[in-house]
Amino acid sequence: MTGRPTLAVVGATGAVGTVLLQILSQRADVWGDIRLIASPRSAGRKLVVRGEEVEVTALAEDAFEGVDVALFDVPDEVAARWVPVAAARGAVVVDNSGAFRMDADVPLVVPEVNARAVRNRPRGIVANPNCTTLSMIVVLGALHAEFGLRSLVASSYQAVSGAGRDGVETLRRQLSVVAGTRLGTTPGDVRRAVGDDTGPFPDPVALNVVPWAGSLREDGWSSEEMKVRDESRKILGLPRLPVAVTCVRVPVVTGHSLSLHASFEDEVTVDRAREILATAPGVVLCDEPAAGEFPMPADVVGTDPTWVGRVRRALDDPTSLELFVCGDNLRKGAALNTAQIAELVAAELA
After folding, report:
1. Which is the most buried residue in 76, 172, 249, 284, by most CB within 10 A?
2. Helix, strand, coil % in the chain, rounded to nearest 5
3. Which pLDDT does position 222 carry in this prediction?
């Protein structure tokens, strides 16, 4: 390779792809040519990246000719088919799907936590974690480095954009239906107002919380909950870490939040935890409850860091902390982390 590496963005017209193009225009420009790739129905569209219009090309084998790094944001089944094709053509692939995350020979990377793992990629593939995992793992990684994480209990409050554009449009339709309707007085009134229009969710999400995300797995767990457990173990290098997760969908457009009960090998103090979090890369400490300052999706949307607050030591355990974290699931939860991984690869190729 001579000059700056050629980058391909696969799935450029999707929700995360759109944010990724914005991020590529905002960050230091380390790329040469940038190609935009999507499904054949999107071919011919023109999108703006780095201030210039670029025409979208159809996903095909020859689209990866001469590509050094390919960023994939496509459904799992599409990634499973096309990621190996791009890698076989010589591209280093950063994949945002779940198709390869738990493969032993594919590193799962969060640059603030395990950047070195990106160099060990025997298949030419680097995986990007799930958006829920990414909304908490930078905070946990910083605390783990100091105290040694022993176990984790997490409850997520996940935005509808985690289900893609269909999730966002479903919430907007439901809100328009229930607006001005007298609700909350009889059982099932929200369900009756919404009817069968639940979109990608099992139940109405407008004016509701749905304690479910993903598909059913063994013993009543959901696929989303299993992702958080398995990915956290892999990223932190703790294959037997006890993790219990409950994933909840809430009527928020963008911004995942999690309540965490993290237990450590050593005794912890709130003051030391705050010191660590205040200086951790990619973290903003927002923790002044008396002034009404704590992380909320309405405040963190459109920002890059993970925000953390409500830092407390557990009432009955001096080795445990209670925390509330919040992050933009389309930025650090997907597009930004993908771009950061790609920049690590670009520096290596230079």
Report:
1. 249
2. 40, 25, 40
3. 97
Does the structure show a pLDDT above 80 at 185? no
Is-catalytic flag, 247? no
Q: Is the pTM of this model over 0.70?
A: yes
Give pLDDT, residue 104.
96
pLDDT of residue 3: 83
Task: Report CA torsion sign: 54, 60, 62, 64.
Answer: positive
What's residue 123's pLDDT?
97
- Most distant CA atoms of the chain, gap in Å: 68
Residue in the structure block whose two tokens are 């280093």:
92
For the question of residue 261 being annotated catalytic, the response is no
**Would you tell me how many other CB atoms lie within 10 Å of the CB of residue 50?**
12
Contact 84, 207 (CB under 8 A): no
| Spatial CA neighbour of 114 closest among 100, 133, 98, 97 | 133
Q: Please name every residue paired with 71 in a beta bridge, in sequence order, or none if there are none.
A: 9, 94
pLDDT of the residue at 2: 56
Percent of the chain whose predicted confidence (pLDDT) is above 70: 99
3 state SS of 127: strand
First to last CA, the chain: 8
Please name the residue ranges forming H helices in the chain. Answer: 15-26, 76-88, 111-114, 131-147, 164-178, 189-194, 223-236, 270-279, 297-300, 336-349
Q: What are 336's two structure tokens?
A: 């930004």
Closest CA relative to residue 131, chosen from 157, 106, 150: 157
Q: Identify the active-site residue in 144, 247, 256, 286.
A: 256
pLDDT of residue 209: 96
Active-site residue, from 131, 247, 286, 326:
131
Confidence of residue 189 (pLDDT cuts 50, 70, 90): confident
